Amino acid sequence: MHQDLTTWLQWFSNQEDLSSFSQPYFYPAWEHLPHEAKLPHADVISERLETLMALLRWQSDPENQAAPVIVTTIQALMQRTFEPDDLQGRVRTLKVGDIIDPLDLVEWLEDQAYEPEAKVTQKGEIALRGGILDVFPLSSPWPVRLEFFGDELESIRYFQPESQLTRDRVEKIELTPGGEFGIIKQQIEKNEKAGNSMLISFSNILDYLPRDACILDTEPLALQEAAEHYMEQIPEDDPYFMDWHGLLKRLNDGDFKRAELKEADEGGSFIEDSPEPMSMDQGMELHPDLESMELYRPLGDRRPEAHIAEKQRQDFLNQMHRWLRKGYQVLVICNNEGESQRFREIWSESGFNSDSAQSKNLHLLTGSLSRGFVADSLGCAIVTDAEIFGRYKLQRPRRLKSPHAAAAKSILQIDFADLEEGDYVVHLQHGIGRYVGLRRLPPVGSQSEDDEKGPEYLVIEYAAKDYGDEPPKLYVAVSEAHLVSKYIGAGKGRPQLNTLGGRRWQKAKAQAEKSIRDLAGDLLQIQA
What we know:
Blueprint: H1 2-13, E1 24-27, H2 42-60, E2 69-72, H3 74-78, H4 84-89, E3 92-95, H5 102-111, E4 115-116, E5 125-129, E6 132-135, E7 144-149, E8 152-159, E9 166-170, E10 172-175, H6 181-194, E11 214-217, H7 220-232, H8 244-253, E12 257-263, E13 269-273, E14 291-292, H9 306-325, E15 329-334, H10 337-349, E16 362-366, E17 373-375, E18 380-384, H11 385-389, H12 403-411, E19 424-427, E20 431-440, E21 456-461, E22 473-477, E23 484-486, H13 504-527
Parallel strand pairs: 1-2, 4-5, 11-12, 15-16, 15-18
Antiparallel strand pairs: 3-10, 5-6, 6-7, 7-8, 8-9, 12-13, 14-17, 17-18, 19-20, 19-23, 20-21, 21-22
């Protein structure tokens, strides 16, 4: 639920009318307990530190920033983390022109739980090669390459972890700790060796909140049950956790504003201040304000026969019109402009006038929601295109964030880590060639001869058209590297290189396409 809530808040904060609403942050719990001898995933620690850093930045300048909205779980609240001052002391900002010994920087990074590797590919890793230091901060979507001339930091560039190709230049970079759980574990061990459990103290996320922060309990009973179940898995007086009783005391003794969802007499629900202290025996009930669309029989993921589906859709459109006549604001969320246009057509075909007074309260928005709802207390109904057209996306388990993964998939289908000069590659349009390396070229239209400032290209050599001629080379921009794949052929023989502009590759592609069509036809005949 907390992941869905974060997604909904992110969607609403992106709407023009709500642009002043702060982008929400998700503060997750470690997915492993300390005694399981497994470290939490780097993306989990990354999200936790990103949230804590956002709170620190806001507290340093609250007048000029929207207050962050934090979505978290009771397990994450119970888990300890850095004290605010300790975390602030573990953050370092580097700028081009700074004077710093690269070896001293490596030592500092290792103290912050960064792992030395031969090549940086994952968050929390560093690699030093001469005057070049690669770092993948947990707070950054891309790893950074720090280039030194002696002790002077000459340049800072992002780079692709898969290909190791550099991307954009930046003037400064913020380095946050490379871990959290491992550092806390080391500090706890120091405390135990010193015989003082409070030699180094810890916090939880409540210490990062302002004194007048508002805490909204969305499912009090579920929180209590989750906390009690979690406590059963934690040894008594475990230094990694604040127990449920201690957390309740902290919430009640603090100056936090608390609120909870209550059921209204006339139905629906509202948010009410909760001056009463929380307790484990409070027994609060939650009646969500959001009424499911299932009561109004929208089209489901299992569509009936066409004539039944059409009748069911018409009944649902009639219900939408009834909401409009009652003065409700009806929002229709469509995945794309095509779905929006289709809705306009069937709305008009159903006899509803888009220019009528009631239809002024009908709003089309582009977004992605899995289900709609009705909030009678707010006079609002939100409908998704899936409930109108009967097309539902499968709900898949949440994947950990990997900000570079999507870009890497679309930009670099080829694994450059395994590609060496002389390897055979295949370009989608030009066929088989020989990879001869990477090269920078001056930017298009630039009078400068400085290749270092230009974009990077893959250089592919093709067969010469005439014997004795220089083999032509094709320069493929990194942004188009998805057109290139590594050659995989039968046997160990070397493939014949294609010529640029030749017809042999086009004939080979046409023959392959024909073979695929023939095979598909055979399969259809077998199935029939």
